[in-house]
């Protein structure tokens, strides 16, 4: 188990023969916060940085790394190693570590089956998923945030929890592989659609406009709409609506939060508008889904 310091909301979230999940979340701010994280021998470690200005130094590496909020890395460790993480003064330290045994990933991907699987495992072993672009760590998508929240709030134990966690980790890996492929098959200077989508991901709960996006990235709002639709074959509003509906559906199924509160969380001021949109999307009302 990871050894944590100066925290009250941290520790082991889940552990099986192949997977360990540890959450670090300080309950206070006001002075520098530090933590030690252990990566096991022959393990893949997903590290999601959930607070700003986190610094990392591995004990067997002279270099230090700095991360912004919502960045992540996928790191392979052939030997057990300890890393120290800390934040700047007055910042709360918050991150989540998912450690997965090498053999589990090997069996899951089955690199002996085809060349694509072998390439994925090769990229993972050589840590090509740490920095995707010009030494810039990748940014978590809204889907990744939703998966982490579901893992943290899942209440059942035993076999059901194990199956649920494994399924969610597979979803995370698929999202990471897709993000890696997207960034490495396009020209590095032509990232406008990706940047637009990232802004929509971060603001799915409100109606962020093409005009607002354009002002943030310095292009005309018509170009924003055109670039996004050309890349993703949908409009910005349709994409944001899809994200809201998917989040709402998962919250209805996996939580006891009131439907009205879920509607507000997903950007709907009026419950009737939310119910109408939800039924149009899934063919069933939120109340009916919860009663199933």
Automatic annotation (TrEMBL):
The keyword Acetylation does not apply. Residues 194-292 form the HTH araC/xylS-type domain. GO terms for molecular function: DNA-binding transcription factor activity; sequence-specific DNA binding. SUPFAM superfamilies: Homeodomain-like. Signal peptide: none annotated. Pfam families: HTH_18. The keyword Repeat does not apply. Keywords: DNA-binding, Transcription, Transcription regulation. InterPro entries: Homeodomain-like_sf (IPR009057), HTH_AraC (IPR018060), HTH_AraC-typ_CS (IPR018062), PchR_regulatory_protein (IPR053142), Tscrpt_reg_AraC-type_HTH (IPR020449). PROSITE patterns: HTH_ARAC_FAMILY_1 (PS00041), HTH_ARAC_FAMILY_2 (PS01124). This is HTH araC/xylS-type domain-containing protein. The lineage of its organism: Bacteria, Pseudomonadati, Bacteroidota, Flavobacteriia, Flavobacteriales.
């Amino acid at each position: 188990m990871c050894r944590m310091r100066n925290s009250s909301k941290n520790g082991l979230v889940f552990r099986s023969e192949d997977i360990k999940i540890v959450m670090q979340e300080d309950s206070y701010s006001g002075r520098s916060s530090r933590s030690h994280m252990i990566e096991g021998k022959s393990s893949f470690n997903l590290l999601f940085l959930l607070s700003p200005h986190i610094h990392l130094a591995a004990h067997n590496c002279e270099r230090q790394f700095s991360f912004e909020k919502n960045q992540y890395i996928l790191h392979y460790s052939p030997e057990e190693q300890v890393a120290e993480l800390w934040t700047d003064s007055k910042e709360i330290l918050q991150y989540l570590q998912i450690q997965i045994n090498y053999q589990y990933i090997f069996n899951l991907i089955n690199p002996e089956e085809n060349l694509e699987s072998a390439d994925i495992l090769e990229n993972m072993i050589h840590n090509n998923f740490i920095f995707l672009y010009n030494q810039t760590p990748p940014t978590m998508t809204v889907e990744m945030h939703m998966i982490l929240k579901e893992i943290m709030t899942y209440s059942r134990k035993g076999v059901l929890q194990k199956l649920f966690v494994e399924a969610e980790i597979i979803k995370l890996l698929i999202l990471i592989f897709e993000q890696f492929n997207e960034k490495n098959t396009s020209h590095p200077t032509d990232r406008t659609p990706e940047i637009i989508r990232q802004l929509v991901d971060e603001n799915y709960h409100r109606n962020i406009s093409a005009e607002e996006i354009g002002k943030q990235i310095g292009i005309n709002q018509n170009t924003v709409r055109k670039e996004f639709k050309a890349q993703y074959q949908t409009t910005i509003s349709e994409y944001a609506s899809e994200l809201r509906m998917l989040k709402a559906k998962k919250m209805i199924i996996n939580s006891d939060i009131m439907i009205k509160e879920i509607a507000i969380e997903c950007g709907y001021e009026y419950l009737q508008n939310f119910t109408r949109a939800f039924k149009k999307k899934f063919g069933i009302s939120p109340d009916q889904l919860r009663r199933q």
